[in-house]
Specification:
With 278 residues, the protein is α/β, with parallel strands linked by helices. The chain folds into 2 domains: 74 residues, lambda repressor-like DNA-binding domains (434 Repressor (Amino-terminal Domain)), CATH 1.10.260.40; 183 residues, Endonuclease, Chain A, CATH 3.30.870. Helix content is 50%, strand content 12%. Strands 3-2-1-4-5-6 form a 6-stranded mixed beta sheet, sandwiched between helices. Strand 4 and strand 5 form a beta hairpin. Helix 1 runs antiparallel to helix 5, helix 4 packs antiparallel against helix 5 and helix 10 packs antiparallel against helix 12. The chain is elongated, with a radius of gyration of 22 Å.
Length: 278
Amino acid sequence: MNRKELNPDSSPQAAYGARLRSLRETHGWTQDDLAARMGYSSVHISAVETGRKPPTLRFSRSADRAFGIEGTADTFERQHREIAHGGLLEGFPEYVKYEARAVELRLYEIGIVPGLLQTPQYARVLADSAVRRGAITPEQADDRVAFLAERQAALVRARPPMMFVAMDESCIRRTVGGAAVMDGQLARLVEFAELPNTLLQVVPYDIGERRTFDLPVNLLTLPDRSVLCYAESQAQGNLDRESASVEPMLTAYHQLQAESLSQAASVAMIEQVRKGKS
């Protein structure tokens, strides 16, 4: 039998495949044995071990069950996320870790509804669009949607964080996925605004030059009251913890809120858009 040797240092995917093979052989299992335990074919196992096929979240969780390492610090699920995060902008994976324990979130978005407020249908349309453009694979699209759902679920807890969301008017007027998807998404925004721990504001087009941000910005307040800022462009993300640069961003966010519509006026605009009115 020909055995393809991998250099685990060549890529995160190669490291994953080499570790999968090593653990399998340590257990004395053939690829057929592991395939039977995981519910995959031996061909699929071979393709992951040799780096010809990227591991998915489902595959990784199945491997963790097969090897009995669920809930440990060194799961295949964790390794998979590192691979998946490799396609994310710099700083974002680290940002998400803080997001899950923040006591306050301040979000500003342009063009699309912020991820934490997206419905599954809206998120799926965006992911599938990326697949059609060749930017990601179908498996990565599935992972992206699942990852977003986990981020959203992490904010549903006994003491949920306060969430301030300022959305450019383009977020509610740009149609994504057709009328049905948009109606469901806009309805979700109205529901979000009714929660006791949220404030939703639309930043109207006529704010003009008074708009304080030209790019999406996320500001997190942690339990110790320190504030982090995550901002990104099309090609780069940056997580900033330095108060000297974060504090002006917080001030700019407050200035943006002052120029934005009230929550009542924002909800009224959203309802008008739902009804097809200008």
